[in-house]
Amino acid sequence: MEQTWRWFGPEDAITLAEIAQTGATGIVTALHHIPYGVVWSTDDIAKRKRAIEAAPSLGLRWSVVESLPVAEAIKLGEGDLVPLFDHYRASIRNLAALGVKTICYNFMPMLDWTRTQLAARRPRGGTALRFNAYEYAAFDCFILKRKGAEAEQKPEVLARAKAWVDAASQSDKEKLLATIMAGLPGAYDRYDVPGLRRMLERYGGIDRAALRANLKVFAGSGAGRRGGGRRALYPSRRSAAAVVRAVAHRLDRR
User: CA-to-CA distance for 216 and 225, rounded, in angstroms?
Assistant: First the structure.
């Protein structure tokens, strides 16, 4: 068992020295600056490893990749996927060749996770992520205006959501959107409200069976299991269902 810590790279407000103070020896990170579907080169991987291991006194190593993202086209089963499979395999080989062999990925539509606050103040002065159902409902029902969203909410949650959106400034609404989009940590593509609606439409024909079938194709391509590393596919967490409830609801209904 190794104690590890998530680090979002050189731009992270938390430094490696601070992480070392927790007792962690393993770093969990990814090359968030590289667009989905593009090969992680050995040069880029080596550069991140050097940054993590630059101070030997800290005793840190790159233990886990979280995550090596799966391009949205693969989840949707759109177009010629062979180049994307090839690029994914190449990234795994490059990571394994440099000693990074535990690689996480997910097959969740659109977002990895969702919160409505990224820096909720705690009693002792620290901050934490937080998910408030009424803020999510305010976004889903009154900003995104997803069809059928209001019917999915409890009356008391919907009432509080309406009160929030009525009192919110444009800046408040933009901040909420940015927070929800942070479910794509370091992602190359971010959605505005129209873009999010368009992406939901792309998933309109995808039911549970279709999504599983696309996952099976991905796994069968070797992209999810070859290259010398250990792959870990983690299930969709409850928080990840927030904005993509439209997809989840459709999958469950079908």
Answer: 12
